[in-house]
Fold these 3 entries.
Entry 1:
Amino acid sequence: MSDTCNSDCSRCGESCSDRKEEQVDFSAKLNDLSKVKKVYGIISGKGGVGKSMVTSMLSVLMNKKGYKTAVLDADITGPSIPKLFGITSPATQNELGMLPAISKNGTKIMSVNLLLARNTDPVVWRGPIVANVVKQFWTDVIWADVDYMFIDMPPGTGDVPLTIFQSLPVDGLIVVTSPQELVSMIARKAVRMAEMMNIPIVAMVENMSYYKCPDCDNIHNIFGDSKIDKVAKEHSIDVVAKLPIDSKLAEMSDNGDIESFDGNELEEIVNSISE
């Protein structure tokens, strides 16, 4: 029995001698016309920490290494991936399935915002419907050949993360947080959920970790002292990255030009997941 066991076997992916029921297979079948080699989820305990931006940055860096990349935007009620990549045209479909949008550098993207009449239309759906749509992005979209798929998950530990952990072949997770103690506390919930579901955490990213003054090069901890090393050590996570507050990166994101990103702050993570 795991140290984190809460005796709710219906929500646990672990096989152990103390299970109280037969384990149900929730796995979803990938579209027959698709081949996805590696799947990494990007998670956070709460919103507003830059999870979608980190997802996009990882995809961009892997694409620049020559890999075929894709982003599955699982943040159904708060989708932002198309905006980051500057994609405005809707997704299309044929008799075989849905076709993802393709960025200017070749990244394949599927998001609910590509299916709405206007990108400002709200998605007012209950949890089971949202979770089912995420599964459909895996089963009904013709991704074709993809080396690395990055899943931008909604914040928290609710229906969608649980569906993804149980239904998709996730190879590992990257946890995004920020320096505030409150955020770090909530990030631990996401980490513990991953541990309960036996999904390996390959890295942690602390966004808005510091600000470097362009005039004097002094480092300022705008949101408090960094907490990421302490959290990572508690959970035996070896790879960490600290992203500064960067107005140029924010401008790229707002202008849909994230593919111009060429920083090296995430290089250790990229190297750790590269084949």
Entry 2:
Amino acid sequence: MSDLAICCTCGTQFGARDPDRCPVCEDARQWVPQDGQRWTTLDELRRDHENVIRDDAGFVGVGTKPSFAIGQRALLVPWHGTNVLWECVTLLDDDTARAVEERGGLGAIAVSHPHYYSAMVEWADRFDCAIHLHADDRQWIMRPSDRIELWTGEAKELGEGLTLVRCGGHFAGGQVLHSERDDALLSGDIVQVIPDREWVSFMYSYPNLIPLDEARVRGIVRALEPFSFERIVGAWWGRVVPRDGKAIVGRSAERYIGALHGQLPR
């Protein structure tokens, strides 16, 4: 619904027209701007924003211009003759829907963690598909919908070589998408692609620089142990570890844990 409230800071669409607060931004992993919470709607966003559709990391990416809220881009991952939308962006307009339909439409949506839930229900309603989220993050759903299918456990097979893996870490239900066909891990913020592509990183809060504890970092490595992957694809345009991804996750975790214990890298 184009008149529902959207948080300008995190991009989450609410199931109400006049919420008085954004729990996603009040959490320590986000922030409320110093001048207070601001709201918009899809109708307003469509007036001065548009989506860019272009190739990225071997997939088709969807990102908003000018950048809105956190600024992530989504990816179309081929699946059963259609696509899984991995991650989501808030803006959905007729031009975007038409471009996605021309590329096979959507058969499902999956989002790594609550900061990217954005307008996922709007997208699911438009394309008549399900949203796959981990049940451990159910409290962060700001617009409930029958489209949302909560799963439990450590991995969910979607078919055609696509698997959702609950890694936890940044959020309890933080999930990544493993693509056997693409030899890739689509990692969101759960495994963060950083400027030095020989490493990745992990955090409890990225904007507020709160580190993740050792147990949760080791939990991420343990969750990924059954899977092989050469590439790691992050949540923004061009954020790709091109090779040796599995080994990079392992050695990055050891470096990170060492730093937590005072063994700073040189």
Entry 3:
Amino acid sequence: MSSPVHISVMTGKLEGLRAISTNTATNSYCIKQNTSGNAGNICTKCYSHTMLTSYRKNMQPALQRNSDLLSSRVLDASELPTILDAFFRYDAHGELINETHLHNLCLIALHNPHCSFALWTKRNDIVTRYLKAHAKPDNLILIYSNPKVDTILPRPPRHFDRTFNNVSEDKFVERQNCTGQKCKDCRLCYTIGNGVDTIVEMVKEY
């Protein structure tokens, strides 16, 4: 039986990686943040909203199937995808929807212990509630995606391994360690135990 979970082949900065993503355009949290009108919130500059509502609109049906599947019920063991990659991205598009969504991502990580999974999320509330009752898989890297532009968090929140911070081109230049590289060549975010807990990227306009 093949897994019903859709796996995307990434392009651009993420070329060479694959991902399990969901539909940003129907995620209520994403919509609220994207339309907040707060220029200091990185979500107002969301690449995913721009892509999925314009030139990559054809991606929405597959990502929506993932949104519905991963957030509605716990996947059966036979439905978990077998992933042969060394590094894998969660939610290159989208955001955590609920605890069931996170649970299914953890099950996929446990099913593929040889692979290093990285999940970017702003939903500290979902992560905190979930990890009160569950253990985080050793091969899952949780990266807190800081919503505030030009503010570098001094340390990750509890349960998180790293923070991802967006800054203006002329701010914190010496600390920008995620600029002008492809993820497959850098792997800073995807490597467990490398001592780096703060990622800083220059804001991109879409």
